[in-house]
Specification:
Structural class: alpha+beta
Number of helices: 6
Bound molecules: heme C
Number of domains: 2
Number of strands: 5
Largest sheet: 5 strands, antiparallel
Helix content: 25-40%
Order of helices and strands: HEHHHHEEEEH
Length: about 200
Amino acid sequence: MKNHLLTALVVSTTASFSGTAADYVSEILPIMKEHCWDCHSNETEVKGNVALDPDVLADQIGAYNVIRPGNPAESGFVERLKLDETHNDFMPRKGKPLPKREIEKIEAWIQAGAIIDAKKPTEDETKRMAEMKPAAPSAGAAGAEAGFQSWTNREGKVIEARLLGLEGDAAKLLLKNGKSYVVPLSSLSEESAKMARESAAP
Ligand code: HEC
């Protein structure tokens, strides 16, 4: 079925994502390099069959793997970080527990879909980004289901989409089918344009 709302609203399509989304490369990798690298990297050693290098991390991510997108509570990866440091399974082995803030960052990243590089998402990841709940919905997104909000254009047409960020004077919107679009703020209703500016503000 052709979606007339989209035809009216969407101006151009794009496959690339802005750097605003929290992803492994920007948020988690530095933590891994500090605490885990000696034992879990192709640059050093790979213990327990877990290499944390971004190019092979996908092996650890999946519904039955140690990193379960959208489900930090059942991710063995997180479970180990939260164990008592005397426990056999505690990670980092022979190290100090990660600061709570860093564990929370990791949980938030998994909750949001465990995306490795938001600038170059794989097809799978793009789908996951569309499905996952954002870790910390911004004030503008309060109450919105799974981070999706209703966007209205100048003609009063409405679509459901998640804001990925702003690109100059345009909003990057992610639709539930996993496609992302860049929509000039000038083509949105005043209220939607305001919502985009406020949600994207740091
Ligand atoms: C001093 C070495 C060392 C450090 C540092 C270390 N690990 Fe490990 N890790 C191991 C060893 C050895 C195993 C395999 C034995 C086991 O599963 O307990 C392992 C296993 C794992 C597994 C289990 C894989 C599975 O299939 O269940 C995960 C997940 C893991 N480590 C994550 C981490 C994380 C995250 C860090 C950093 C916060 C870290 N490790 C730091 C040595 C280390």
